[in-house]
Write a structure and sequence with these properties.
Strand content: 25-35%
Structural class: alpha+beta
Mean pLDDT: 95
CATH superfamily: 2,3-Dihydroxybiphenyl 1,2-Dioxygenase, domain 1
Number of strands: 9
Distance between the termini: 25 Å
Number of domains: 1
Oligomer: single chain
Helix content: 10-25%
Low-confidence stretches: none
Shape: globular
Number of helices: 2
CATH class: Alpha Beta
Largest sheet: 5 strands, mixed
């Protein structure tokens, strides 16, 4: 059912610096800018886009929304989190680490992007 994810941005240049740092930290490539001025990231079969809102209103983070990104290891999640903070993201919630116990435990790392969108790096045991 899933095809892609798109978030709004009030500053595409700032978003490009942030998301380029995030995705290259886990083996992805820097985003490309399409003819409509949107940033496009493609990695591991997923597509992630960043765009100024089409209605002209300011971009805001979705209240209650979290975008989860799969990580291959805890080290990859930590590198992602570190790169995001260094590129202008905000560390939120608990520090990166394991949540839960046993086989259902998850390694999670949370950030907000420069426009307030909530992102989560997730690694399963």
């Amino acid at each position: 059912m899933y095809s892609h994810m798109m978030v709004g941005s009030n500053d595409i240049a700032k978003s490009k610096a942030f998301y380029d740092a995030l995705f290259t930290s886990v083996g992805g490539k820097p985003g490309i800018t399409d003819p409509k001025g949107r940033l496009v990231y493609m990695h591991n079969g997923g597509i992630f886009l960043v765009t100024p809102p089409i209605d002209g209103a300011p971009a805001t983070g979705g209240n209650g929304m979290t975008i989860g990104l799969a990580m291959a290891s805890t080290e990859q999640a930590d590198a992602w989190h570190k790169a995001g903070v260094a590129a202008g993201g905000q560390a939120i919630e608990d520090p990166p680490g394991w949540r839960g116990e046993g086989p259902s435990a998850l390694y999670l790392a949370y950030l907000r992007d420069p426009d307030g969108n909530k992102l989560c790096a997730l690694h399963r045991k």
